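Feature request disguised as a bug: please show the residue count (527) next to Large extracellular alpha-helical protein in the output. Example input:
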Amino acid sequence: MSSERPEDERIDEDTVAPEPIASEPAASEPAASEPTAAAQAEAPAEPAAEAPAEPAPRSGAIRRPTRAQVGVGARVLLGAATAVGAVVAVTAAAAVPWPDVQTPPVALEVQPAPSETVLACDGPLLALGRDPQNAQQLTVAKQSDITSGNDRGDELSSDALAQPTVEGEAAASRFRQLPDGTEAISAAASSSVSASDDDIAGFAASACRPPQMESWIVGGDTETGSTGILLVANPGDVDATVQITVYGVNGATTPPGAEAVPIPPRTQVALPIAGLAGGEQSPVLRITATGSPVRASLQSSLVRTLDPAGIDVQSSVRPAALQVIPGVRVVGAAGSADSSTTIARLLAQQDADVTVTVAESGSDGRVVGDPDQVELQAGSPLEVDLGALPEGEYTVTVDSDAPLVAAVWQTTGFGAGSDYAWHTAAPEVAQPTLFAVPEGPGAALSVVNTGSAEATVTLSEQGGDSEDVEIAAGESVSVPVTAGKLYTIDPGGATVRASVGFASSEAVGSFALWADAARPAPVVVYP
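Example output, currently without the count:
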């Protein structure tokens, strides 16, 4: 019988070899710690405390870790586990919401010191093309009537603004009011004009406004029969330069020569919009001033076939996400017309989703029809047809997710003797504000309460009686006022929007109330 074990039971010594134990050296090799007898006789005795040397392992053998190595490995594993745990803890702490601890900045509400109030009026009604030798010549068609004063019952200081490009007595008016020391004095002025000439006829009313560094005009067109004249006044004593940007079907453009239009001090410049926005049916103009603020407005007139069909003078507006246009009064043949008599024009400088709502004036504030949902493309004006509204008074609200400018065009009809008006958006009025009512038919103050609570508004006629008007949240009222008088509207702590309007079967006009220029809102200062 063979002495070899089966193949599967043999141990491959090249793969695994047991480590010799120090106390039992392998028989095939002499132990290093056991010297021969001759060596013992010759060598001196070694100290008993000396530990025997560890035999060197054979090649390919698996070494067992020493206690020191086991200790080092354990410490390494423990350190790695601790580091991983710290990373997990920091990551988890970052994911958990931390307490929101904020220290509000120190803020002071400062009331600006009162300063001089400067108001610029539009001047006389102008006609274009009456001179057969010069079709571009502007001439005076009719002088306007002005109502002005301050809250103490005194007359305002006034002088003239020259119009060098207009023939005739074309000077516009500038009104000024100084404060009484540290006490502000409110000032107000407005104008109106009625014309019945063969080439221009209708009624228009406007408020005299303080100058601004930026103005937006939403209105006018350049179709056949339409005439528009941009009025830019510099009521200050420093030169101004304006840039005129036209928004139309191709977006924003600056016409040649409109990059830097000089406006000398105490001067009003009249520019036909046909030369600025030629071919645009629904233009919007932006006037940006440098050097000195200016007052911008648009005078327009319309002729259908050979019949004059109205005039208007409209003030500039300011961009806002919410635009409220009160006092749109539908009168005369417009109340039974088949065609649209009311159109809103809108413009945003960025894409916007807009909701246009028409509500009746009165205690119920009933919404007329379904609100119009429209999308505005950045820089492109859009007109929204509000339809043929029944006779009455309405408030148009334009609500957007981006700032925009808006105005509403409304006409009394489409035949001879008709008139039209551009109703501009009204800004918020939160403090007592003085306003002047010029001459005109059916004068009324329209007030909208855009707040969430009922408002009590006090309307006081200068030198006359006062009246408290209750307005529910979200509703509007119309209060008759007397032409040629000054009034003060006190919102009583609420925030309202208001306009002064005029209407008859053959005349319509309107202008929005602005906050009192003599009493600017407090300014928040962060020291």
